[in-house]
Design a protein that fits this description.
There is one protein chain. Helices cover 25% and strands 26% of the residues. It has three domains: 38 residues; 204 residues, P-loop containing nucleotide triphosphate hydrolases (Rossmann fold, 3-Layer(aba) Sandwich); 171 residues, Ribosomal Protein S5, domain 2, CATH 3.30.230.10. The N and C termini lie far apart (80 Å). The protein is α/β, with parallel strands linked by helices and 453 residues long. α5 links the parallel β7 and β8. It is elongated, with a radius of gyration of 29 Å. The chain contains eleven helices and 21 strands.
Length: 453
């Protein structure tokens, strides 16, 4: 039964009001506003012309009765996108993609839509069809199975879905949609929640995957109610510095895969290029040895990476020394500097320390601590670290070198890129035998200083 709703109407001119008032603001008559009962129209199904009473009612099933056959995922033809999703798009799933303005969210999804063999409906509420066509021509991919629709009303979108019958629906963006069943502006909390609920009902009943683009606020969170992230199956974050050409796709929530995976892209004039070996682009190819530079072996998700860390230590010009870090936690930098001064005897309290992780990426893996300390010591002594040396260990408050996980994968990645020596903790258990990389086992910072300098 539909919910009963009341409203206030003027008996003289018919104007409607949200609450009772003595004088009608439309015809200026007094005591003509009365309360009337309004029966709100029942919300139909997303299927055009289908009555909700004809649909089958779900019934409970025993666990043994439910089929456990593995569902076939839709291959997006994008290895990085598939990696983050966990192997492809699950039928009937809702995926939300968020990111900064201009980072490349629309380009990524349009590129995926153009290279699929499935029938795709790309719905845009922000751009015209000609604008999308210009981007498609720039990507240089011609697709007969990609349909472009510019519409913001959900009822009209579902009519076109019933006519086209796509295998994948892309909505750009969820903040531009609106439905007739909510009396508020597009982008409001109630509109976003209701439009997402309609898309979820469509996806689950038709087993059609839906990709949503979501705007973010100045705080970096997805605009709209927090319940939006709970409603969808997967939440992806597309991030990167616009001053760099590299973009990182992370999974913040994934009901069908791991949230530790990440994909790396390079922004080009013809679209986004998949980066299969990110270690090569994150390490600068300089022939000369430079002080203050160290290579760290880190792991993001299931993927080992080698990243370059640069440090600059100089005398403080002002009274208070500066501590600045790009892509690294400043509080952890201060902790490592305190360990160097207390445990190793390096006087850095009166010096400025600047730290940078090249490539515009942010890393929170504690295994890069040893590389951070090595780069700081190298810059302080103005002595370059020998080429072919990398580091993979955590540093404790007592100055001890602590072990890290999956050290074998880090060693194999270093060997693949031509490194000859890697410094790790003595407590690490290494199972590799036939490796060309020399593994140096250390237990304290003092041993690192003796080995390097």
């Amino acid at each position: 039964m539909a919910k009963t709703k009341t409203a206030y109407f003027c008996q003289n001119c018919g104007a409607q009001f949200a609450k009772w008032i003595g004088q009608c603001t439309s015809c200026k008559e007094w005591n003509t506003v009365v309360e009337e009962v309004v029966q709100k129209e029942s919300k139909p199904s997303w299927k055009s012309g289908t009555s909700t009473t004809l649909q089958k009612t779900a019934r409970p099933l025993r666990v043994t009765e439910i089929s456990n056959e593995k569902e076939v995922r839709l291959d997006t033809k994008d290895k990085e996108f598939n990696r983050v999703l966990g192997g492809g798009l699950v039928p009937g799933s809702l995926t939300l993609l968020g990111g900064e303005p201009g980072i490349g969210k629309s380009t990524l999804l349009l590129q995926v839509a153009l290279q699929l063999n499935y029938k795709v409906l790309y719905v845009s509420g922000e751009e015209s069809q000609k604008q999308i066509k210009m981007r498609a021509d720039r990507i240089n991919k011609q697709a007969e199975n990609c349909f472009i629709l510019t519409e913001t009303k959900t009822q009209h979108i579902f009519q076109q879905i019933a006519a086209v019958e796509p295998d994948l629906v892309i909505i750009d963006s969820i903040q531009t949609l609106h439905t007739d069943y909510i009396e508020s502006a597009a982008g409001s909390i109630s509109q976003i929640r209701e439009c997402t609920a309609e898309l979820i009902k469509f996806a689950k009943e038709s087993s059609t995957p839906v990709l949503l683009v979501g705007h973010i606020t100045k705080d970096g969170t997805i605009a709209g109610p927090k319940i939006l992230e709970h409603m969808v199956d997967t939440v992806l974050q597309f991030e990167g510095d616009r001053n760099y050409v590299y973009r990182i796709l992370r999974s913040l929530k994934n009901r069908f895969g791991s949230t530790a995976e990440l994909g790396i892209y390079e922004m080009q004039g013809s679209g986004l290029r998949e980066v299969n070996n990110p270690s090569e682009i994150l390490i600068s190819n300089t022939n000369g040895e430079l002080s203050g530079t160290a290579i760290a072996a880190t792991v993001e998700g299931m993927r080992p990476l080698l990243i370059e860390i640069q440090a600059l230590v100089s005398s403080a010009v002002y009274g208070t020394p500066q501590r600045s870090a790009t892509g690294f936690n400043v509080k952890r930098l201060n902790m490592l500097l305190a360990v160097l001064e207390k445990r190793a005897g390096f006087k850095l309290a009166a010096k400025d320390v600047f730290l940078n992780i090249t490539g515009g990426i942010s890393v929170d893996d504690p295994a890069i601590d040893l590389a951070v300390i090595a780069s700081i010591l190298s810059s302080n002594a103005d002595i370059a670290i020998a080429q072919g040396v990398c580091f993979a260990a955590e540093v404790g408050l007592a100055g001890e070198i602590r072990p890290v996980q999956r050290v074998d994968q880090r060693i194999l990645e270093a060997e693949k890129l031509g490194f000859t020596t890697i410094f790790v903790s003595k407590a690490n258990k290494i199972s590799l035998k036939n490796t060309k990389v020399t593994v140096r086992l250390i237990s304290k910072i003092e041993e690192l200083v003796k080995e390097l300098f």
